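Please describe our next protein:
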Amino acid sequence: MLGKTGWPESTQRVKSLTWKGTYLYRNHRLIPFLTLALLGFVSARRTPAQDPAPATPSPADGSKPSEQRPEPAPPQGGQTTGKSKLERETGTVNDRIFEVLPNYGTVENAGRLPPLTTGQKYRLATAGAFDYFAFPFNMALAGIDQANNSPKSWGQGWGAYGKRFGASFADNSIGTYMTVAVFPSLLHEDPRYYQMGKGPVKTRAFHALKRLFVTYTDSGRTRFNYSEVVGNAAAAGISNIYHAPEDRTASRNIETLGMLIMWDGLSNELKEFWPDIRRKFFHKQNP
């Protein structure tokens, strides 16, 4: 059954969560965000390499450069970090996407970093959940639901608007804490996103999607990303406590979980290709 916006009513009820410091949009915003991601792909394809390859010094043993062993992986420690204390401590940079959207927990131009402490994981989650952009963003989402009278049982008026704002803010905050702090701390996983930065567009796009299901542990190993899947499932389940009764269904929870993972994948794509967009359209080499 179609709602006022032309989308199925069950789809209109899907709430959004933050994407580890940036924000997930509802499903009817899919087209513009795919367009933005496409701009990233195009800019990455058209932007020439910014840094020339360093000259290879002549080896002391007289062998040819082609005979030398390949360079090792980048050392621990980020080459690009933000200015705040949290960014310096975690090796991340909050390089706001399109100069507005928060981008906490992103590692740019770096190899593997030392593990985060539990306190650092919670501080990253708090920074993302209570970023200044969260308030107008959730106010706008509440306004859309108010205009669509969704859910209907909440009715209209300032009291109903307050409920919708509170539910949206809770969705965002709980989702961030579950996937960035709670489960990464319990399961000893690294919630940061490591940009690939260079390479073919397809390889980088696959890297961004793969991070949904493969993550680093605090010990530096890779394994299935339990924090992403279990954390989002927990957030969807907790939302039944404060959402309207008509939204407390198994189908709505499953649909919400699928949407959350999909949006996290899209957010990873934006994180991966944002530096290319930044150089191409904003003419900024560094954050």
Residues 1-78 have pLDDT under 50 and may be disordered. The CA atoms of residues 206 and 248 lie 34 Å apart. The chain is about 50% helix and 5% strand.
